[in-house]
Design brief:
Layout (H helix, E strand, L loop, with lengths): L27 H30 L23 H36 L3 H4 L1 H18 L8 H17 L1
């Protein structure tokens, strides 16, 4: 007894016939892709390779940009708005640097606390003392400036603190 009827399920053809070309014209998609490759892609790629080889010889690491120190807001001449702007940008850079210093000291203290466990007060006294100094200095300089802190506000806060120290 046979499993299947060969007449009901004929075998597929052994070779797939090649489709006959109906036209002698070339494929427009192929022409467009070749035209784009040779007119746009290839020149741009070669130009980029040349530029990369030149830049590879003299690399410049832009993320370590050194800014020159600019005069403080107190040293600006009245009406010199460019000096005001530069002093403001310098203050903002200093503010970010001071924030990062506080973060680094915090990380060191946390690492020491994690490492030492319950006896961190004895073993991490240096880190705790350093963090307290840094946090007090940061708070003294930037403490009550609020969300819209600026170099002018910071200068006024410093002036008020100096007046209070003179009166005391």
């Amino acid at each position: 007894m046979k499993d299947h009827e060969p007449d009901a399920y004929p075998q597929p053809p052994k070779r797939t016939p090649v489709a006959e070309k109906e036209t002698a014209l070339p494929n427009p998609a192929l022409i467009g892709s070749k035209l784009f490759y040779y007119s746009v892609d290839l020149p741009v790629t070669k130009f980029r390779e040349i530029i990369d080889s030149i830049r590879g010889r003299n690399k410049y690491y832009y993320y370590h940009q050194n800014f020159r120190r600019v005069p403080d807001l107190t040293e600006c001449v009245e009406g010199d708005y460019l000096c005001y702007y530069e002093a403001e940008m310098q203050w903002r850079r200093d503010f970010k640097v001071d924030q990062e210093i506080v973060k680094i000291m915090q990380e060191r203290l946390r690492a020491c606390q994690t490492r030492e466990g319950p006896s961190y007060l004895q073993n991490c006294s240096n880190e705790l003392k350093q963090f307290d100094e840094v946090a007090k200095a940061f708070d003294a300089r930037y403490g009550d400036l609020g969300a819209f802190a600026s170099s002018r506000r910071c200068l006024m806060k410093q002036k008020q603190r100096m007046l209070e120290q003179q009166q005391a």
